[in-house]
Backbone:
């Protein structure tokens, strides 16, 4: 009976990550697709499974392309100014905008994984991302800003630490984030490991 339970748990361990990932992808796909498909069906009388996701992808890509043009920049600045004047909306808008631009786009912030010494006595170190290397605007010298994501959670903390306690890591940022969020359980794949 013990062996049977052990085999069951081992099978669950193999199956669960794949099943949960596929279920989440399916759920997101169907929700997005059904909403957009209804809209497309009303205007164009087309009902093809997957057309909603495709249409959303095309719209977001076009928006990104248009957003890079000179014509669209004043409109984007106008939206930013309007959002900046609304007290509560400003907080939500700027937080989401900064968080999104930290992960994607030309102004990515989480692209420098580092190791930080957080306890000099026990040599305790923590993995994070260097977000600001110059804090002179805050009248802080010889220190840097490092963001530490929490394990098994989509949150984190930002610390101001002495620059000499920070060691850059030569690993891809996505691998560093995966390693931290998984609590150090996930294996880190270096660029040279992927190619071999």
Residues:
């Amino acid at each position: 009976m013990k062996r049977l339970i052990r085999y069951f748990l081992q099978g669950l361990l193999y199956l669960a990550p794949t099943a949960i990932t596929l279920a989440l992808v399916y759920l997101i796909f169907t929700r997005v697709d059904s909403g957009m498909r209804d809209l497309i069906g009303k205007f164009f009388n087309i009902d093809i499974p997957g057309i909603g996701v495709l249409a959303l992808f095309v719209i977001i890509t076009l928006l990104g392309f248009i957003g890079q043009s000179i014509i669209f920049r004043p409109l984007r600045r106008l939206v930013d100014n309007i959002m900046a004047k609304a007290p509560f909306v400003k907080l939500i808008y700027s937080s989401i905008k900064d968080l999104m631009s930290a992960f994607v786009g030309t102004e990515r912030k989480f692209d420098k994984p580092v190791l930080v010494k957080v306890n000099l006595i026990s040599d305790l170190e923590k993995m994070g991302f260097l977000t600001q290397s110059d804090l002179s605007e805050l009248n802080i010298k010889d220190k840097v800003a490092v963001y530490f994501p929490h394990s098994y959670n989509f949150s984190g903390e930002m610390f101001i630490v002495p620059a000499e306690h920070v060691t850059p890591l030569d690993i891809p940022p996505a691998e560093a984030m995966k390693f931290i969020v998984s609590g150090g359980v996930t294996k880190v794949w270096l660029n040279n490991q992927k190619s071999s």
User: Anything to note?
Assistant: The mean pLDDT is 78. DSSP finds six helices and five strands in the chain.
